[in-house]
Amino acid sequence: MLYLDESFRVKVGLAEMFKGGVIMDVTNAEQALIAEKAGAAAVMALERVPADIRKEGGVARMAPIRKIREIMETVSIPVMAKARIGHFMEARVLEALGVDYIDESEVLTPADEEHHIDKRQFKVPFVCGARNLGEALRRIAEGAAMIRTKGEAGSGNIVEAVRHIRTIVKEMRQLTVLGQEELVHEAKNLGAPLELVQYVAAHGKLPVPNFSAGGIATPADAALVLALGAEAVFVGSGIFKSDDPEARARAIVKATTYYQDPVKLLEASEELGLGMAGLDMSQIPESDRLQTRGW
Amino acid sequence: MKRVGVLALQGDFEAHRKAIERAGGAAVEVRTAAGLDSIDGLVIPGGESTTMLKLLDLENLFEPLREFGLRKPVFGTCAGAILMARAVTHPEQRSLELMDLVVERNGYGRQLDSHVARIAGPGLDDFEAVFIRAPIIRSVGPSVRVLATYRDAPVLVEAGRRMAATFHPELTGDLRIHRLFLEML
Known about the structure:
By secondary structure, chain A is α/β, with parallel strands linked by helices. Chain A is built from 13 helices and eight strands. By secondary structure, chain B is of the alpha/beta class. Chain B has helices spanning 13-22, 49-58, 62-71, 79-84, 176-184, and strands at 3-7, 26-30, 41-44, 74-77, 85-89, 99-104, 115-121, 124-131, 136-140, 145-150, 153-159, 162-165. Chain B is globular and about 40 Å long.
């Protein structure tokens, strides 16, 4: 089975190390250092944070190599970078550069409107976004070693990440009570390989770590998605688009570890001012929603 | 049944919890100094050592953890081994100084250099070791017994009732190393 081979285990192994941690979007070495000092488990190097991509528009691509390299040279924690959906050549470049993880991300402008990257052909591990179980299992079938909810990146609004983690967890739970013949039917409905559907039915969880992203802006947001079943969080615009990036980064790290402890959550939230300005989903037309990218 | 704490600030503490339970111990997640009171030994898991250090400082856990380590058995894997070392390089960072080891972070390189290998030594027969952005133990003091080596460097070491591995026994089904730790309790 694909998820048991040696190379895949090493990829999933690194994802295991991020659990209970915060992966922070950074656009330069200075931000990466702030993230590391605040206790980030990893950083995600990109050219613009999602909130700016949303505002400025245009084609969003892989970050400039010089910037990613500078970040890799500055911090000792793992460095991830984003490639466009289906753009296996951006991924090849990032692999040659030696990044620790690639996010095949809907935040960037898709390069292929039908196919994702065949991630099994790479030595570097991949994380992919998902809104539901079928999408998550298709990405795993392609070789993703980590899944994250898509949420709605750059919105500062947690509602979509909540919808996605709840959907994935509920769909997994439903599989655990089905008989074998029903799983075949479900595999068809989900558009996912039977083998992976059977795995989820037997274990009640994905064969790879399941994280949350897209709209996390406060310590309580992070705690919320963890309580709903996410095993770690990605924070994009939420930190460096706020008035207090250093304190907020520290606070979200603390909230992620102590999400079950309301007193610690209060301590984490106490020193913070206003978070990033957010968007109600009604302000984001369907065509501008990043989460609909990916197939 | 012995109660084994797993430091659950960040990292693969869940994998350790399961391994301890399968090896016959009772596992409890520890996130506060009070959590140290009721356990017989502690596992410091893999993860990011800088993240764990940050939380140890933020939550005033550094000293209580060190004091616990001086009294009771502790087993660290990967980031845990880094935290237990006497000195850490690449880059230099603070540590609990519970074992006389000098450890180099990310000793093999980045994730592309992560790998699975067979290891062995005087204290351990053929074992499948998963190295993830693993550190390398560059030197050990006279108090330290080397149980297994890989590419001429120690990868599993013991000193008194403390043990450290640069790889991840919690990510394989092989429970021998966890049983070894349970026997120390």
